């Protein structure tokens, strides 16, 4: 019997699309990585990470799918998974922060522990994507660029595309220095008494709307990773030594 692993499912009303955000619960890792660490480069035992992925995919009925899990770089590179073999080495997706496909049999995933994950689905064109956006990626408009590219190349239609923004740092938990604040969209920087904070969700929602997604098709999970340590890993909250959650999406 497949192990029960709690996830936060999304797009439940879209037939043939399986999408969810993980929590930190339900895995085999220990210590700072307790327990469902899905980050291969966080410092955890690699064997435990592989077992966690296997348990997760089995629990969601996705065993046997190829796993497109890019090695993130906090940039704005986008990669197509279509045409890759399921046994393609993951290193081929190194330095990529957004992946997309119209090909069934793949699980697209990005990992995070405070950064914002975004899942994209067009149930009409049958295209899905996963995007990782920290403050650097948001500054470089990774979500907006991904959506604009998908629309321009005909992979998605802005009229039917849905975007889900996942758990991340809330604005009150994402304090930044002025050197960073000055590089970010001013409409989403909050300043008070010489300090500054960044609204990661608000900035990415604005990018989705600017790309052409209708307001009713952009949703968000309101939970803050740092404020919910029982549910989520938090890089800031745990001093940089912690695990990673994942945002996953697949075509059935």
Mean pLDDT: 95
- What is the number of helical segments per DSSP (H or I, 4+ residues)? 5
H/E topology pattern:
EEHEEEEEEHHEEHEEHEE
Tell me the CATH superfamily: CNF1/YfiH-like putative cysteine hydrolases
Return Rg in Å. 17 Å
CATH topology category name: CNF1/YfiH-like putative cysteine hydrolases
Principal-axis shape equals: globular
Number of strands: 14
User: Could you name the CATH class?
Assistant: Alpha Beta
Low-confidence stretches: none
What structural class results from the helix and strand content? alpha+beta
Helix content: 10-25%
CATH architecture: 4-Layer Sandwich
Q: Please indicate the count of domains.
A: 1
Strand neighbour order, sheet with most strands: 4-5-8-7-9-13
Distance between the termini: 21 Å
The percentage of residues in β strands lies in 25-35%
Largest sheet: 6 strands, mixed
């Amino acid at each position: 019997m497949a192990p029960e692993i709690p996830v936060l499912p999304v797009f439940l009303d879209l037939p043939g699309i399986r999408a969810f955000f993980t929590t930190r619960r339900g895995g085999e890792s220990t210590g700072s990585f307790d327990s469902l660490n899905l980050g291969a480069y966080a410092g955890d035992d690699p064997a435990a990470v592989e077992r966690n992925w296997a348990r997760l995919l089995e629990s969601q009925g996705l065993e046997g799918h190829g796993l497109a899990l890019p090695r993130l770089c906090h940039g704005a590179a986008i990669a197509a998974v279509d045409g890759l073999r399921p046994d393609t080495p993951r290193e081929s997706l190194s330095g990529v922060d957004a992946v997309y496909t119209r090909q069934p049999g793949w699980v697209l995933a990005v990992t995070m522990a405070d950064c914002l994950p975004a899942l994209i689905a067009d149930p009409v064109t049958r295209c899905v994507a996963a995007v990782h956006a920290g403050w650097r990626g948001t500054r470089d408009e990774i979500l907006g660029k991904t959506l604009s590219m998908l629309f321009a190349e005909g992979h998605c239609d802005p009229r039917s595309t849905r975007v889900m923004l996942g758990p991340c740092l809330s604005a009150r938990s994402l304090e930044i220095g002025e050197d960073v604040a000055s590089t970010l969209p001013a409409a989403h920087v909050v300043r008070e008494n010489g300090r500054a904070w960044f609204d990661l969700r608000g900035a990415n929602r604005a990018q989705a709307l600017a790309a052409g997604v209708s307001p009713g098709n952009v949703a968000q999970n309101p939970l803050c990773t740092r404020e919910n340590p029982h549910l989520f890993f938090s890089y800031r909250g745990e001093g940089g030594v912690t695990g990673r959650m994942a945002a996953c999406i697949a075509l059935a």
